[in-house]
Amino acid sequence: MIEIKEEQLEDILDKAIKKIETQHGMQLLSITKKIAPLDPLHFFEVAKGMKKNRTFWTSTIDDFYIVGVGNAVEIVAEEERFEVTENQWSKLLDEAIVYNPYKVPGTGIVTLGGMAFDPKKPRTDLWKKFSASQFTIPEYMLTKEDGSYYFTINIRLKRDDHAIQLANELEQVEATFFSERPRNTNGLITNEKIEIQPSEWKDSVRQAREEIRKNKAEKIVLAREVRLKFNKKADITTVLENLIQTQGNSFIFALEKNDDCFVGATPERLVKIEKDHLLSTCLAGTAPRGHTEEEDMAISHSLFHDEKNRQEHDFVVRMIKHAIKNYCTDLEIPDEPVIYPLKNLQHLYTPVTATLKKGYSIFDIIKQLHPTPALGGTPREESLQFIRDNELLDRGWYGAPVGWLDSNQNGEFAVAIRSGLIQGDEASLFAGCGVVKDSDPEAEYEETNIKLLPMLSVLGG
Ligand SMILES: C=C(O[C@@H]1C=C(C(=O)O)C=C[C@H]1O)C(=O)O
Ligand SMILES: [Mg+2]
């Protein structure tokens, strides 16, 4: 990676073009500049007119946003996805020219993306636009961090490009993002809500419980699907806006692939890395919120002391500890969970902090962690096999890591739950729950109902 400093756009472009030696050669150039405040949702909305795939990420926990438009480069992997992605990413970084005077996480060359929950489960038509693993380096990107705004352009230059002309075009693009764009935000109604095989799903919970009682597994997470039909095409900007307003303490994301868009508001961080500081979370065990403060406190209290929920949770804590211990030092995990409140429900939550050892990347950690027993089960292989053989849906990217990383080894991935695949005027929503030896199929069904609420309520349901 070559870094350039203190120059004008035209000079930067000119120097980069001159490095291209052959007629068919390409040079990836990344330029970041600080800009005036620009609403990330406005940026996302304006990009709609550019007819390019858009990518949205925010951690409402730290008021951090990345919005990407288009693909300067895409890294797609069907097999050996962690290795392939990491190799292509580091090769790309080696060859890129980067102009980024700010050492701010999420600026400069950043890649955003996600992957399928289980690449061994045959892909159905529903998820046909999403590969086993797909990461994009956007053409244009807005980053909001610590109250400042950064605009990044990633461009693939050819030898016969003209610096002056390109500089003009890029300045126009930047101005476009600041231009007005009227929005039509209201009126989405869910006309039809089709639960996919609810009674068969309860049977599969019973069957999983049997496996567990026969000691073939300890925990198996089973998900189900709800199909929605709307009165009109869902407007993704509005969906995101409503998720941001209603789902604090969450990671809100959207990944567009042509006319399909995978959207969610998940509370579950898989891993965050800033410099060598690692954060992960164990999130499992669920109860609804109370209608009054008193009732809410009573529910929290019983969730905290409930043996079945504590068991669901402890499997996750033990596994995460085991999975990352060889990759870090200073691993710290409290002995007891705390309550993590969300708008519609509350969870048991245990934070994990550690120092990442030199030589390891966020990919190494994701590879170890995914799927945790919060989405797969315990033991991993047995529970995954059960899901593969018995679950009644194609999870696609639901329940899998989604997030971003930059060229300075910073990055963050969440587990894509509380999510759905929006396809024009229809959508599929997904929710699952951890089945353990004392699970009651009816109660688990109700638990998935509340997990569907965050998405349902922003889709006019
Ligand atoms: C599987 C989901 O959530 C997971 C399952 C939980 C549980 O069963 O208690 C809680 C949080 C997540 O780990 C989902 O929301 O779809
Ligand atoms: Mg549960």
TrEMBL record:
<dbReference type="Pfam" id="PF00425">
    <property type="entry name" value="Chorismate_bind"/>
</dbReference>
<comment type="similarity">
    <text>Belongs to the isochorismate synthase family.</text>
</comment>
<feature type="binding site">
    <location>
        <position position="312"/>
    </location>
    <ligand>
        <name>Mg(2+)</name>
    </ligand>
</feature>
<feature type="active site" description="Proton acceptor">
    <location>
        <position position="219"/>
    </location>
</feature>
<comment type="pathway">
    <text>Quinol/quinone metabolism; 1,4-dihydroxy-2-naphthoate biosynthesis; 1,4-dihydroxy-2-naphthoate from chorismate: step 1/7.</text>
</comment>
<keyword id="KW-0460">Magnesium</keyword>
<keyword id="KW-0413">Isomerase</keyword>
<dbReference type="GO" id="GO:0008909">
    <property type="term" value="F:isochorismate synthase activity"/>
</dbReference>
<dbReference type="InterPro" id="IPR034681">
    <property type="entry name" value="MenF"/>
</dbReference>
<feature type="active site" description="Proton donor">
    <location>
        <position position="268"/>
    </location>
</feature>
<dbReference type="InterPro" id="IPR004561">
    <property type="entry name" value="IsoChor_synthase"/>
</dbReference>
<comment type="function">
    <text>Catalyzes the conversion of chorismate to isochorismate.</text>
</comment>
<dbReference type="InterPro" id="IPR005801">
    <property type="entry name" value="ADC_synthase"/>
</dbReference>
<keyword id="KW-0479">Metal-binding</keyword>
<keyword id="KW-0474">Menaquinone biosynthesis</keyword>
<feature type="binding site">
    <location>
        <position position="447"/>
    </location>
    <ligand>
        <name>Mg(2+)</name>
    </ligand>
</feature>
<dbReference type="InterPro" id="IPR015890">
    <property type="entry name" value="Chorismate_C"/>
</dbReference>
<feature type="domain" description="Chorismate-utilising enzyme C-terminal">
    <location>
        <begin position="199"/>
        <end position="451"/>
    </location>
</feature>
<protein>
    <recommendedName>
        <fullName>Isochorismate synthase MenF</fullName>
        <ecNumber>5.4.4.2</ecNumber>
    </recommendedName>
</protein>
<comment type="pathway">
    <text>Quinol/quinone metabolism; menaquinone biosynthesis.</text>
</comment>
